[in-house]
Design goal:
Elements lengths: L5 E8 L8 E5 H6 L7 E6 L2 E10 L5 E5 H7 L6 E8 L4 E5 L1 E6 L2 E3 L2 E3 L4 H14 L2 E6 L8 E6 L3 E6 L4 E5 L3 H4 L2 H12 L4 E2 L6 H8 L12 E3 L2 H10 L2 E6 L9 E6 L2 E6 L7 E5 L2 H12 L4 E5 L5 E2 L2 E11 L5 E10 L14 E3 L1 H8 L2 H24 L7 E8 L5 E7 L15 H24 L15
Parallel strand pairs: 1-5, 2-4, 3-7, 8-11, 8-14, 14-15
Antiparallel strand pairs: 1-6, 2-5, 3-4, 6-7, 9-10, 12-13, 16-21, 17-18, 17-21, 18-19, 19-20, 22-23, 23-24, 23-26, 24-25, 26-27
Helix pairs in contact: 9-10
């Protein structure tokens, strides 16, 4: 059952009281939280918890006034901000949040940060958080600390600030190499120690995903035959299938994918290059290919997949990106679907490789009768939810977002092409200012933040928590 959170507005004030650790709230709010008879409560914002006096004032009912001194102790920006709250009577604690942080790679020019491919998306997350309640900030992994974090929040442009450790971290690191580093693992360990939920904590290996899904009998018909690349495995699949795909297990954005198919007494290899057209090569002997490929892959691990004769859309390759998110009930839902059409001379449909997006029903109704198109779209969503559930239930850490690429063959059968744990934010249709995926991410962040905080209070005494040591004055 989902928890109901009360929205409040925290307003910093300049106080001349002798008691600096005194908050002011309306009688209506004090009555709602059942704290009229409580002289002090614990106020918890992020990982900072302070015992404060409560003063009833004639204020708008959902306002809480904090002296600037307290605001600085909580390390939150000194500006009026809407938050969500719950009061835990057993521990006499008012929880205010969520404080959500996105961890990514960034650069800075003239004091202006650039969050690369998620820059615009970060602004969108800010605006939605501002509407619903909470504090959103962005930080680089290099700036993580257990006490305070240097990051950016949006206020007519991105402003630098020193924040408390957040309630929840959304991982959007771009580098797979960085994610496999000891430094990054230390960050994850510190977050676990601090009880900070950290979701989508790593990229998914294509081979690991296949190994996981192939165990599910009901999913097997939708998975292309897949083996790790070795010369023996290559020959085995080449003898069984008329075309093959060879992909790096840690690849992204359709880079360095090979499409191989037989032609007369030789076979043709297309390589996705990211330029205007793919590279073509022809090999008359398999030994020639082995020699070339050993140089091409440079010791990287690849998988070999059965080539599926997928439908074409106006003589171009088409697949469907299905974006799935876990909701507040811990169930997977589909937040968006787009059809992706490959560039004119490309065999992958990634937008990064020059592809285009269409509304799925528009593309499907040009391939099938309308009633069949509607059925295909529903089957695609159902299959995606099932795959997402299997992955999240059988992998370590918190998986809250997945992008699935689904293809349809010439018989109308659905095939899983790929699963992405950090799907691109540049392919979704943006007819509205706040996309459904943005709402879904913040819904999950809010749920995780308050669940972890409440559980922390249930399992620990205040002496065990990180309490900012300010005593009420006599």
């Amino acid at each position: 059952m989902a928890t109901s959170y009360l929205p409040i507005t925290v307003i910093p004030t300049e106080t001349f009281q002798t008691k600096e650790n005194c908050i002011q709230i309306s009688r209506a709010l004090a009555s709602y939280f059942h704290i009229l008879a409580r002289p002090t409560i614990f106020l918890k914002i992020g990982k900072v918890c302070i015992e404060v006096y409560v003063e009833i004032r004639d204020l708008p009912k959902n306002e809480v006034h904090l002296p600037s001194f307290l605001v600085s102790q909580f390390k939150i920006p000194n500006k009026a901000t809407k938050y969500l709250t719950i009061f835990i009577e057993e521990s006499n604690t008012l929880i205010v949040g969520p404080i959500v942080a996105l961890m990514t790679d960034s650069t800075e020019t003239n004091h202006e940060p650039n969050f690369r491919s998620v820059h615009t998306f970060c602004e969108e997350l800010h605006y939605h958080t501002q509407q619903t309640g909470g504090l959103f900030y962005v930080f680089k992994s290099d700036d993580f600390s257990i006490d305070e974090i240097s990051g950016y929040y949006y206020n007519d442009g991105w402003k630098k600030h020193t924040f408390p450790p957040p309630d929840v971290v959304y991982n959007r690191i771009h580098s797979r190499k960085k994610e496999r580093s000891d430094y990054f693992n230390n960050i994850k360990n510190e977050m676990t120690r601090l009880n900070i939920p950290f979701f989508n904590d790593r990229f998914l290996s294509k081979w690991d995903v296949h190994e996981l899904l192939i165990q599910e009998e009901h999913l097997q018909p939708h998975l292309p035959e897949t083996l790790l690349y070795t010369e023996i495995n290559f020959l085995e699949l080449l003898n069984k299938h008329s075309s093959l795909f060879i992909k790096p297990i840690h690849g992204s954005q359709g880079r360095k994918i090979l499409h191989l198919y037989k032609e007369s007494h030789s076979f043709i290899v297309k390589v996705s290059t990211g330029t205007q057209s793919d590279d073509f090569m022809s090999f008359s002997k398999v030994e020639q290919f082995f020699k070339w490929f050993s140089r091409f892959r440079k010791n990287s691990t690849y998988i070999i997949q059965q080539g599926i004769p997928l439908l074409l859309y106006k003589n171009r390759h088409i697949d469907f990106r299905v974006l799935c998110h876990k909701n507040r009930y811990n169930a997977w839902k589909v937040t968006s679907v787009v059809a992706r059409i490959s560039g004119e001379k490309q065999f992958v449909a990634n937008i990064a490789r020059g592809g285009e997006t269409y509304k799925p029903i528009k593309a499907l109704t040009e391939l099938f009768e309308r009633n069949v198109a509607i059925q295909q779209l529903e089957h695609m969503k159902e299959l995606s939810r099932e795959i997402a559930a299997v992955i999240s239930n059988n992998t370590d850490g918190i998986t809250g977002e997945l992008g699935l690429d689904i293809g349809i063959d010439q018989d109308g059968k659905l095939w899983l092409i790929e699963v992405n744990s950090k799907p691109s934010k540049n392919f979704e249709e943006q007819e509205v200012k706040i996309r459904p995926s943005t709402r879904a991410i913040m819904e999950l962040c809010t749920t995780l933040a308050f669940e972890y905080k409440s559980k922390e209070l249930e399992e620990n005494t205040h002496a065990d928590l990180w309490i900012h040591d300010i005593k009420p004055e006599e």
